[in-house]
User: Fold these one by one.
Assistant:
Number 1:
Amino acid sequence: MREAIHAAATVAATQNALPASAVKLINECSIEGRAAATLTSAAEHRWWLSSASVEDALSVIAGDAINIIAGERDGKLALCASPTCQAAFFDTSQSRNSRWCDMNTCGNLQKKARFNAHRRKNLGISRMSLKCSLSI
């Protein structure tokens, strides 16, 4: 089911039609379990499992995936801007324009690479300037 959720979320983030095979598997897992959505007195959503079966756990995961992919949660599906990652992630930032799935890994790597490229470029210009001034 992990692959099906990944495939559906990735396609949903690009606002294209969901793959039928992924939708079928997610729906099957959602239906097979005996998990039920419940409401607490604090107005919070909780899942109730009638047993500790794998089917019930997968049903909860599938139900949450359905809510996110269908756009029923406050947030936006996006794809990581890192060329080595491109994972689908759920952006809950206030502006809904996060670029990376995780700032501490993908975001940091991208910013570090950009900084180093800029530094190398400036260092090259400085060396060229120094070389020109020494030859004068």
Note: The chain is about 55% helix and 10% strand.
Number 2:
Amino acid sequence: MKRKGKDENIKLKPLSAEQFDKVYNQNFDHLFLFAIFIPKCDELSKNIIAEVFMNLWKKWNKFSEIR
């Protein structure tokens, strides 16, 4: 796999709500298993994951380029 150089950027495509839901649902279980170790509380861990994804959704357009 060829690595991108310092000056090359990765463009993020806009996501529809359906695509974002798919990403959320595909990753929730893995993120939950990771998040549960921090607060040791199921509900708090679920809320943390939901908050992260809500912020990601709100700010998605700001992530037009990753350097």
Note: The chain has two helices and two strands.
Number 3:
Amino acid sequence: MSDTKAWAQYVVEWAAKDPDGLLTTVILALTPLLLASALLSWKWVRMIEAREKEQKKKQRRQENAAAKRLKKDPKNEQTLQPEENNLEMMRLWKDLLRFLKCIS
């Protein structure tokens, strides 16, 4: 505890005697951290934008495929396609496995 108090007292004395030096030191110490933060934020935004673009492209592809299926179906009835049916079965199996883990 006394080391912390001594260090704090030293910093306060330093700030009182040489405020420009303290400010320069603080700015020099924080600059790399701010630059790293800016770079990581920029990369994160780029990743989010790329993911959103890919999701829009996938959604458009699915909508186009659904439209083609409706055009091919003479009755214009919407039925489950094999890939949709497989996804539904996978969800059911996952739910069943979770349930079995919970009760065991």
Note: Residues 2-79 form one domain.
Number 4:
Amino acid sequence: MWPLVPLLLLGLLRPCAAGALLTQCESPTDGTIYKYQAKTLNGSHTVNFSDYKGKSVLFVNVATHVRPGNGFVPNFLLFEKGDVNGKDEQEVFTFLKNSCPPVGDSFGNPINRLFWEPLKLNDIKWNFEKFLVGPDGRPVMRWHPRVNISEVRAGIRKYLLELYTQDIFD
């Protein structure tokens, strides 16, 4: 089967809006994640996402307080904190959001809760919103933060199985 590389990018809160809690990313957006990069959490080196060519990657906007330590040892790469919405958002998140329809149907009450401008319909809603990127570097699925991780896992497994069986029969 295709390898799945779990990848978490740290970011500040970012919203998104518009209906379903899972969307399929079939946007005609040009490009791939391969032209982007990020620094590791400790800043020791920069990782080019082109290193993940041929692999499926899960991007997750995690809470800024999630850090290794106190017995927590992640089995995935964590990247430094950065904006996922607003005028200073990281370019890879701009690409991901433009490639997938928004999830959820509102930001809730944005008064005194949202800390970026400008607000956009496809902004990341909250911590733990997820994007699955296929082995071709293009986004495949986007999950709302409230989606149970078991549903995310099932969606990823289904995608990988379809990808694997497609390769066998092609």
Note: Residues 1-19 have pLDDT under 50 and may be disordered.
